[in-house]
Design goal:
Number of domains: 1
Distance between the termini: 59 Å
Oligomer: single chain
Shape: globular
CATH architecture: Sandwich
Largest sheet: 5 strands, antiparallel
Number of helices: 1
CATH class: Mainly Beta
Number of strands: 9
Structural class: alpha+beta
Radius of gyration: 18 Å
Length: about 140
């Protein structure tokens, strides 16, 4: 009985530390991303947050509504991390990539009609170790 209780306690302590680490990284990423997210934009309310390893890509899906101006901000725990984000339609046609614009950490878009998109994120930095990547997406009212 004592062994089972000890194992349960150690497991709970480990999970608590792990969740605090993830929450700490999430808060750090939100702070870094917010540096590029000006107050005139309202967040879409979604969390685009994923674990990423070097040489790995992650994809997020979202819908952009017509006649709105959107801002996408991409960041990692490194301030200048060369995050490459590419926006595709659902047929995988490339609509935009920040790689063509010196890997800008944010970009503003305006869509004339509603479109569902896939946003692919990749980190091109030798200093990037396995960690988290975050996107903030907002729109101007």
């Amino acid at each position: 009985m004592n062994r089972t209780l000890t194992i349960a306690f150690v497991t709970l302590a480990f999970l608590t530390l792990l969740s605090r680490s993830a929450v700490g990284q999430l808060n750090q990423l939100q702070h870094i991303c917010s540096l590029y997210f000006s107050p005139e934009y309202i967040t879409d309310g979604q969390e685009y947050f994923a674990q990423l390893k070097p040489d790995q890509k992650v994809e997020f899906r979202t819908t952009f509504f017509g006649d709105n101006t959107y801002r996408i901000v991409a960041c990692t725990n490194l301030r200048r991390s060369d995050v490459i984000f590419s926006v595709y339609d659902t047929e995988k046609n490339l609509l935009f990539t920040n790689a063509n614009y010196n890997n800008s950490p944010y970009w503003d878009f305006r869509f004339s009609s509603s479109v569902t998109c896939i946003i692919q994120v990749d980190v091109q930095n030798q200093k990037f170790t396995p960690g988290y990547v975050m996107l903030l997406i907002g729109y101007k009212p």
